[in-house]
Design brief:
This is DUF5999 family protein. By secondary structure, this protein is mainly β. Helices cover 0% and strands 24% of the residues. The chain is built from no helices and five strands.
Length: 68
């Protein structure tokens, strides 16, 4: 699929998110990479074969608000 030199990582490789950006739609919350992966702003992914990768949110970054 990728025509770049050197080729972008394949959609099934661990570093698939480092492929080049083909389309970016921040108003809709998604981007398309050269390898066919759709990245969502919540860090979820849709692979070209239809598999979904759940969002990878890091733990401990959400702070709860407390009242005094």
């Amino acid at each position: 699929m990728c025509q770049h030199q050197s080729p972008c990582p394949a959609a099934d490789s661990a570093d698939r998110e480092s492929a080049r950006l083909v389309a970016h739609h921040p108003e809709q919350g998604w981007s398309l990479l050269c390898n066919g992966v759709v990245l969502f702003e919540d860090t979820g992914e849709l692979l070209p074969d239809g598999r979904c990768i759940a969002p990878q949110r890091s733990r401990g970054t959400i702070q709860a608000m407390t009242t005094a």
